[in-house]
Amino acid sequence: MEQNRGTVITAVIVTVALGVLVFLAVLLVESALEATDVRIAEAVYDLHNPLLHLLMRLASPFGSTVGVIVVTAALGVFTWRRGERRTAVIACATILAAIVLNPVLKLMFARPRPELFPMIPLPQSYAFPSGHTVGATVAYAVVVMVLARFRPEWRAKLHAGAAVIVVLVGAARVYLGVHWPGDVAAGWAFGAIMATIGWRLLGRSRLPATVNRGSQG
Q1: Which CATH topology does 2-215 take?
Q2: Chain segment 109-145, per-residue pLDDT in tens
Q3: What is the C-alpha separation between 73 and 71, in angstroms, rounded?
Q4: Predicted structure pTM score
């Protein structure tokens, strides 16, 4: 029963996220996404203030390639040292796969970066989907999946913390003027797909009974 429930949840999340990604891609190809993106980006620009600017500058690195790799390495070491080597491999592979695959999508769509009001230097890569958003979505979702297995009582707080980081990273990329809102939405969708695949793979990797007992102490 539990396995069937997991399969249904996986199918629903992947289907919805894939639908969103395809929908945005179609709008992009048909040049129907830019007008909406410009309106949203201009509305975000109107919110600029020193405090919000500082928050966005602090949030953005949490989704950078370096930031995500640091998180991935720390998670791998944490699980490996606790004897959960299969979990360590699956968790790290899921995150790294997303990092590798996202540039492929960028090349497929070749969407230029916005040049309305960049607050930081524009990266040289294409814009769609947002790599920071993909990295943050996958990395922090996987972190929650793994840590919640060791500390189930932290599950709610871990989910809340990860959600805040993922939302802030996506918002920061629009606020800083280096991504269109559609890029961020696509990043969340693709990140959700990869994180769900990782969740299913991790679900097949059960913690030893000793670890489960230890997490309850």
Answers
A1: Vanadium-containing Chloroperoxidase; domain 1 (1.20.144)
A2: 999 999 888 787 888 899 999 999 999 999 999 999 9
A3: 6
A4: 0.87
